[in-house]
Amino acid sequence: MDIELRGVTKRFGEVVANADVNLTIRAGEVLGLLGENGAGKSTLMNVLSGLYRPDEGEILIDGEPARFEGPGDAIRAGIGMVHQHFMLVPVFTVAENVVLGVEPTGRADFLDLETARRQVHDIKEKYGLEVDPDARIENLPVGVQQRVEIIKVLFRSADVLILDEPTAVLTPQEVEEFFGIVRALRDAGKALVFITHKLNEIREIADRISVIRAGRIVGEGDPKRLDRKELAEMMVGRPVSFDVVKAPYAPGRTLLDVQDLTILRDNDEIAVDHLSLSVRSGEIVGIAGVQGNGQSALIEALTGLRRAASGQILFEDQDITHASVRARHRMGIAHIPEDRQRVGIIKNFTVAENMVLDTYYDERFSSGPQINWKTVNARAAAFAEDFDVRTPSVFESAGHLSGGNQQKLVVARELSREITLVVAGQPTRGLDVGSIEYIHKRLVEARDTGDGVLIISSELDEIMALSDRILVMFKGRIVAEFDATQGAVDKGAVGLAMAGAAA
Ligand SMILES: Nc1ncnc2c1ncn2[C@@H]1O[C@H](COP(=O)(O)OP(=O)(O)OP(=O)(O)O)[C@@H](O)[C@H]1O
Ligand SMILES: [Mg+2]
C-alpha cells in the first residue's frame, strides 16, 4: 500500500505545525522522518493516522483520496500508529490493552480474552517481543510497555506502520531486535515510517530520509550517503557538536551517600539489592545499565517517590531516607524524572504553572496565599527562553508542547532553582541533537560550579560522554565501577558489565 500526503497543512491556533507537506510512503520501504523537537513530526503522523483532520491538503491511498473521520477509519484503511507517549490503560493487562478498541468480528459477539491471549502469544513468538500477556501495564517498565504498543498495532494487521520514536525507550539490544522486526515487516511488504532522534539508527534502518523543520519538509536524503553531522545540520540548520567539554575533575565533599539500600517493587520483588554509592560535589556519577535492573526504583527512592525497605540515604550528612518529596526538593535536590508524562509535568497546566510546580510556596512567587502570577509568568518566560523550550507562549498547556519540549520544560524548571544535587533519569530521552548538546552543557555546568550530578541512563554513549565515574547496575546491584577521570574508559568493558559478565 502506497500513501501520498499532498499539501498537508495543520494549524493549532497561531501555530502552523505542518505547512504544505508533500510526502510519499511506499510499501516495502522504511521512511525515516527526522526533525527537531517541535518540528511537526508527530502532528503529521497524527494527521495520517486519523487523529487530526488536516486544515488543508489530502491523503491518497494507492492514488485514491481518503477521508478519515477518526483513528478508526485509518485503522480500517490499514494505517496503525505506535504513539510517542504510550496510550495504554495502566490497570489493564497486556492482553486487555491489546484487544481494547478492536471491534467484534466474525461469528463471535465479542473478542474473548482467551483468543486474545493466544494471539498476543503468537505475535510475541513470531517477532520475539517478550512480554507476559497477563501482566498489568502499570507494573511493567517503559521498555516493555513500548513492546505492548507494537504488538497492539501488529494485532490490528496494519499495512502501514507509523513508529513515533519507538526506540527512545529501548535498550541497545532491544533496538537490534526491534530492527529485526522492522526489516521483517518491510520485507513482508509493509510500509513503515520511522521517527527517531538517533541519527545512527536512522542511517541504519531507513531506506529514505525526509527532514522536517518548522513544519516544512526541507530536504530528502539517502541515509547511506549522509553522515551524522550532515543530518544534524540539515535538521537544526546549524552545525552541532557531539563532544562534551568539562573542567578538570576537582571533587569536593560528599553530597549524597547511599548505604546498603534495598528497595522493593510494587509486587515486593527486590529492585535494588543492598546498594551503596556516593556522589561528591563537582562530579558527575553515571549509572549505566540495561533498563529494568532497578535504576527506576533507585531514582524513585532517592527522590522520595518510593519507600526504602532498608538501608540509608544521606544528603549533606542528613538522613533523608524517609523525607518527603517536597522536603528533599527544598533541600536542593533536583529531579529530572525518566517518565516526564507521569511525574514531570501536569499536562493540562500551562507552561508557566509547570515551571513553578513545587516552587510556588517560594516567597518570590507568593506572598501569603496569593501567587504572584506576574513574577511567575516573567520567570517562566525567561526559563523557557534560556532552555529553548519552544512554545507559542507560557500560557500554552504543557500537554500541547511537543515531546522533546516537555522534557526541556522539566529540565529548565529543575536546573533553574537553588540546587546542590541533580538526580537525572534519562535526561535527554526524546531530545533532538541540538537540545541534547544543550542539556549536556547545562549538566556539566552544574558539575563545574560544584553541584553533584547523578545520571542514570540506558544510553551508554551519554554515560560515557558525561561521567567522571561510571557505575554499572545489574540486577539491583552495582557490579562494576570505572574511573573516567584518568582517560577514556573502555566502552566494551562497560558493555560487558551491563550484560552481567562478572567484573
Ligand atoms: N494539540 C496541540 N495543541 C496546540 N499545539 C500543538 C498541539 N500539538 C502540537 N502542537 C504544536 O505543534 C508543533 C509541532 O509539534 P509536534 O508534536 O508535531 O512536534 P515533533 O516534531 O513531534 O517534536 P518532538 O520531537 O519533540 O516529539 C509544536 O509547536 C507544538 O507545540
Ligand atoms: Mg513528536
Which helices and strands, and how do they pair?
Elements: E1 3-12, E2 15-25, E3 29-35, H1 41-48, E4 56-61, E5 64-66, H2 71-76, E6 79-82, H3 94-99, H4 113-127, H5 142-155, E7 160-164, H6 172-187, E8 191-195, H7 199-205, E9 208-213, E10 216-221, H8 228-236, E11 254-264, E12 270-280, E13 284-288, H9 295-303, E14 310-315, E15 318-319, H10 325-331, E16 333-336, H11 340-344, H12 351-355, E17 366-367, E18 370-371, H13 373-386, H14 403-415, E19 421-425, H15 433-448, E20 452-456, H16 460-466, E21 469-474, E22 477-483, H17 491-498
Parallel strand pairs: 3-8, 3-9, 6-7, 7-8, 13-20, 13-21, 16-19, 19-20
Antiparallel strand pairs: 1-2, 1-4, 4-5, 9-10, 11-12, 11-14, 14-15, 17-18, 21-22
Bound molecules: adenosine-5'-triphosphate and magnesium ion.
Q: Would you mind describing this structure in some detail?
A:
With 503 residues, the protein is an alpha/beta fold. The protein folds into three domains: 3-236, P-loop containing nucleotide triphosphate hydrolases (Rossmann fold, 3-Layer(aba) Sandwich); 241-332 and 418-503, Rossmann fold (3-Layer(aba) Sandwich); 344-417, no CATH class. Helices cover 33% and strands 26% of the residues. It is built from 17 helices and 22 strands. The protein has helices spanning 41-48, 71-76, 94-99, 113-127, 142-155, 172-187, 199-205, 228-236, 295-303, 325-331, 340-344, 351-355, 373-386, 403-415, 433-448, 460-466, 491-498; strands at 3-12, 15-25, 29-35, 56-61, 64-66, 79-82, 160-164, 191-195, 208-213, 216-221, 254-264, 270-280, 284-288, 310-315, 318-319, 333-336, 366-367, 370-371, 421-425, 452-456, 469-474, 477-483. The strands form five sheets. Strands 6-7-8-3-9-10 form a six-stranded mixed sheet, with helices on both faces. It has a six-stranded mixed sheet with strand order 16-19-20-13-21-22, with helices on both faces. It has a four-stranded antiparallel sheet with strand order 2-1-4-5, covered by helices on one side. The protein is globular, with a radius of gyration of 23 Å. The model has no long low-confidence stretch (mean pLDDT 89). The chain binds adenosine-5'-triphosphate and magnesium ion. Residues 41-42, 84, 164, 402-403 line the site of magnesium ion (MG). The site of magnesium ion has 6 residues, from helix 1.
